[in-house]
Amino acid sequence: MAPATPSQVSAISVMRLSGPDAIAIADRIWKGKKLGKAASHTAHFGTVLDTQGRELDQAVVTIYRAPHSYTGEDSVEISTHGSLYVRQELLQSLLQAGAVTAQPGEFTRRAFLNGRMDLTQAEAVADIIASESRAAHKVALSQLRGDFSKRLDQLRRSLLEMATLLELELDFSEEDVEFANRSKLLTLAKDIKQEVDRLANSFSAGDAIKNGITTAIVGPANAGKSSLLNALLGHDRAIVSPIAGTTRDTVEATLHLGDHLFRFIDTAGLRATSDPIEQIGIERTHTAGSQASLILFVADATLPFPAESLRTLEQTLNTDHPSILILLNKSDLTEKSPLTDESALIEKSGLTNNSAITDNSDAIRTSDHVAFVTSPYPPYPALTISATGGQGLDTLRQYLTRHADALTANTGDILITNARHQQALQHASATLTDLLTALHNALPADLIAQHLRATLSHLSTLTGTIPSTEILATIFSRFCIGK
Ligand SMILES: Nc1nc2c(ncn2[C@@H]2O[C@H](COP(=O)(O)OP(=O)(O)OP(=O)(O)O)[C@@H](O)[C@H]2O)c(=O)[nH]1
Ligand SMILES: [Mg+2]
Fold first, then answer.
1. What is the phi/psi pair of residue 104, to 5°?
2. Would you say the CB of residue 337 lies under 6 angstroms from ligand 1?
3. In this predicted structure, what is the pLDDT of residue 53?
4. pLDDT confidence tier of residue 410, bands split at 50, 70 and 90
């Protein structure tokens, strides 16, 4: 038993019971039609009683009979008025009537153990509850529907077929027959590895969708990074001052743009400093940059472009193709604003080295086309803005949305959003490499079968066909009580 709604004053409050005695226990605190006789999927109006048998509240009780319930067991949902007092008294009353309190995620855990859903679907339940944007919700819903499970099932089936043929061959090893055509096996294993790798690699996009697209705001001290964060958020989140070195530590804030959630990280300004605390801050700036999906490099447009800072930053990034957008800020102070300088407009070809903008440059430029200027540091595109005046910020928002769209568009139909899934897929990919090597070297059937079985076992941990208690404990402890 557990409350399914939060501990707050609300219109209604729902208490949930599941298990073979659920309906009998509900009957003990109920005045109304006998619930023990009620059919599955029926709702009943009546009165719930407190520990003394006094009327507590009017309520609607919904009955679900096994196996047609969320958990697969007999279940009862009691909806009362959303008073904290009623909720507490009802809890006591149900405890006295024989119910026990549920652990976090226990309902979903039982649903999994009773075969109502597999592990990836159970995890999707937690994701859908936590989803904060349309994109995150869409991925979680697809996983809950079983799209990922079905794809895994297809992969497992193909592998099982191969394994069966190999086992047959082992049974008839005396006769030197080859049931499993080796070149067919090789093609199949290659295809499966390709799909497993694609799924494992979709994690970076999936993670960005689920937890927000990490966007680091980096650049020299005093360039207006914190002002930009505040302007994007529409409120003063970070401290802004004319003193260089104002931001000492990273400041995080989330914002919805289009269908996506962004996680902005304002950082300490890059400059030579002897202050040990500021140095730590600058180290953190580099870390934030290397972990970001997109870097907004903010520079003061009234000063020479700080190419050296950008070069140093580039060296700390662990990718050869970072997504960096240069923002030339304080354009309101430049004598001849690049915003009006038509000759500074970049041609389409000037954008071709940056993947996120290449596909979208036309669309962005039509609405606010003068904001993009010749880049002081190709291949990264540059945009003139004014964090305090607001110029160029609409274009920046469009750029961000399009970056997010591009990030999530090319990843195929199924995305993974869970580090556990990525790890299992990476393990499966490693054993598939062993399998391919064994096939290439025409190794004996028993060795090939061994790699096949290892791959199958990694894929099985995903859906929980072979769950370990440790995995189950980790997954369900992340749930809220009552789910
Ligand atoms: N005129 C003008 N001033 C700006 C603009 N953006 C920021 N400023 C000013 O520049 C100064 C520094 O701004 P911050 O946002 O604190 O700069 P920062 O990059 O976060 O600086 P550090 O945290 O020290 O690295 C402040 O006085 C801001 O008001 C702008 O677009 N135009
Ligand atoms: Mg700052």
1. -55, 135
2. no
3. 96
4. low
In the CATH hierarchy, which fold is given to the domain comprising 2-102? Gyrase A; domain 2 (3.30.1360)
Of all protein residues, the one whose alpha carbon is nearest to atom 27 of ligand 1 is 242
For residues 151 and 173, give the distance between their C-alpha atoms in angstroms, rounded to a whole number.
Answer: 33
Sketch the domain layout of the chain as residue ranges.
Answer: 2-102, 125-202+416-477, 210-409
Asked which of 15-19, 370-374, 386-390 is least confident by mean pLDDT, the reply is 370-374
Which among 232, 240, 273, 300 is the best mutation to test ligand 1's pocket, defined by most ligand atoms within 8 Å of the CB? Answer: 240
pLDDT in tens, 328-352: 999 999 865 444 443 344 333 233 3
Specify whether the CB–CB gap between 182 and 436 falls below 8 A: no
CATH fold, domain 125-202+416-477, is Four Helix Bundle (Hemerythrin (Met), subunit A) (1.20.120)
pLDDT, tens digit, for every residue of 361-383? Answer: 443 443 444 478 889 999 999 99
- Write the pLDDT tens digit of every residue in 99-114: 999 998 999 999 999 9
> Is the CB of residue 189 below 6 angstroms from any atom belonging to ligand 1?
no
Place 204 in a pLDDT band, splitting at 50, 70 and 90. Answer: confident
CA of 364 to the centre of ligand 1 (A): 26
Q: What's the CATH class of domain 210-409?
A: alpha beta
The answer, yes or no, to whether residue 429 has pLDDT greater than 90, is yes
CB distance 384 to ligand 1 below 6 Å? no
Integer angstrom CA distances of residue 124 from 75, 142, 180, 478: 22, 8, 37, 12
